[in-house]
Write a structure and sequence with these properties.
This protein is mainly alpha-helical. The chain has a single domain, classed as Farnesyl Diphosphate Synthase (Orthogonal Bundle), CATH 1.10.600.10. Helices cover 73% and strands 1% of the residues. It has 14 helices and two strands; from the N terminus they run H-H-H-H-E-E-H-H-H-H-H-H-H-H-H-H. It has a two-stranded antiparallel ribbon with strand order 1-2. The longest helix has 28 residues. 43% of the residues are buried. The model has no long low-confidence stretch (mean pLDDT 91).
Length: 294
């Protein structure tokens, strides 16, 4: 219950901030900003912003120091969902229980809204009045590397290029470490960096934690695609199977995927040991990630 309250608190905070930041946007075509708002303020678990806030607090930071990084990571995540749902990619019609952006608007507007959300994320990190310039540059580097050809976009490219193929376990893990894991690890590192953490040992521990829960998040997603329901998931159940996508259950079987999930959960908890009881919120979040139903 305490974790659920924290997640609700951070979700409310980041959504309020995103709404305020978007109000400053001026546009000669309101349809574009409407599509951006539709994609960005449509609910969701807001796990990535929560990780930013939690890791910032763990490293002695404040919510104010983490605000822009939390908003930026969610903007990147939402842009990726808009593009993932496009006909040229996963071709989905439902996201978070609502029509996907290209269905609610049109395909061209959805593409441009995703493009604008990506730029919006980096505008937030580079705004004067946030953290000091050197730290802002670190935040921009963390997010840009996690988002592009070193991270999420590369993972998506590899995924699309290998639909219908049987991957090795190392290939599958590398794909998901990029496609899903990099942004989750970046969330943890953004929070620590926003707080000004310079302790290399602690930063390495947080990176190991982020890497573990990032993969665990994807393994659980793969399992939910088989065992979940469209009503609970808020997106079409069985879409990975329908598109013959490489997944952990497809490669390892249901039991093997669950064993992998448990292994990653243990790795995440072991990575948090240097922080002691102070890391209890992050440990609870790791448990939530591997047991969630959507």
């Amino acid at each position: 219950m305490e974790l659920q309250q924290q997640l609700a608190q951070w979700a409310t905070r980041v959504e309020r901030n995103l709404d305020l930041y978007l109000l400053r946007e001026t546009c000669i075509d309101p349809r574009l900003t409407d599509a951006m708002r539709y994609a960005l303020l449509s609910g969701g678990k807001r796990i990535r912003p929560a990780l930013v806030y939690m890791s910032s607090f763990l490293c002695g930071g404040t919510a104010e120091q983490a605000d822009r990084a939390a908003a930026a990571i969610e903007a990147i995540h939402c842009y990726s969902l808009v593009h993932d749902d496009l006909p040229a990619m996963d071709d989905d019609e439902l996201r978070r229980g609502r029509p996907t952006c290209h269905i609610a608007f049109d395909e061209a507007t959805a593409i441009l809204a995703g493009d604008a959300l990506q730029c919006f994320a980096f505008e937030l990190l580079s705004e004067p009045g946030g953290v000091e310039p050197e730290r802002a540059l670190q935040l921009i580097r963390i997010l840009s590397r996690a988002s592009g050809s070193h991270g999420m976009v590369m993972g998506q490219s590899f995924d699309l290029a290998h639909v219908g193929e049987r991957l090795t376990l190392s290939q599958l893990q590398a794909m998901h470490a990029h496609k899903t894991g990099r942004l989750i690890t970046a969330s943890v590192m953004l929070g620590a960096t926003a707080a000004g953490c310079q302790d290399r040992e602690l930063l390495d521990a947080l990176q190991r934690y982020g890497d573990a829960i990032g993969l665990a998040f994807q393994v659980q997603d793969d399992l939910l695609d088989i065992e979940g329901s469209t009503a609970t998931l808020g997106k079409p159940q069985g879409s990975d199977q329908a598109q013959n996508k490489p997944t952990y259950p497809a490669l390892l079987g249901i039991d093997g995927a669950r064993a992998k999930l448990n292994q990653l959960h243990d790795e995440a908890l072991n990575a948090l040991k240097p922080f002691g009881i102070a890391a209890a919120p992050l440990a609870a979040l790791a448990h939530f990630i591997v047991t969630r139903d959507h």
